[in-house]
Every structure is written in structure tokens, then in C-alpha cells.
Amino acid sequence: MHEPESTSGRIPSGKAAPGASEPDDSRYAGDAFEEARAVLRRFIRGCTQQILEERRAARPDAARIEELTAAVKAAKADEKALLADPGQAARITALYTTRLSELGAE
Hints:
Helix content is 62%, strand content 0%. The chain has helices spanning 31-56, 62-84, 89-105. The chain has three helices and no strands. By secondary structure, it is mainly α.
């Protein structure tokens, strides 16, 4: 016997609901957006690495750990802002490129 394509109002996998459109991800395309995300991710990784190193130190600096943790939270918030408004890519790239170089200098 042949089963119907859809049962109980379910939409078969791979098929969109009638009248539904595919999400428009084109605003996330482009070098500026990708560069901003890459810089943010490098910054977050660098902070996380320094947090781990600080925690492993013989005398961990609690203030430094707190500072780095706050920096990670801010970067994650900026990543969400970038996803909401890809037009912020240049600002975010400039900001986190500077912060990343400062992080490496410490």
C-alpha cells in the first residue's frame, strides 16, 4: 500500500509549508561579515585560553579572571548583534582586532 505524503498536518521532511519561504541568509554572506565573526572567535578563544592559564597559575588573579570573563560575555553579545545587524561588521572587526592585539600583548 502507498502511504500518504503527509499525515496529521505534518509537513514531510524536505518540503516547505505552503506559503512559507526559505530564510534569507544572504545578509550574512560576504567577506566583511565572515571576517568579523572570525576575529570575534579568535578573541573569545584567546580570552578563554588566558582564563584557563590564570586558573592553573600558582596564584590565580581573580580580578584578571573576572576581567577576561566579562570580555568574553561582551564579545558574545557583539556576535549576537552582528547576526542581528550584519552592517556592524566593520565596527566589530576594528574593535576586536584592536582588543585581540592588546590581549596578545598582555
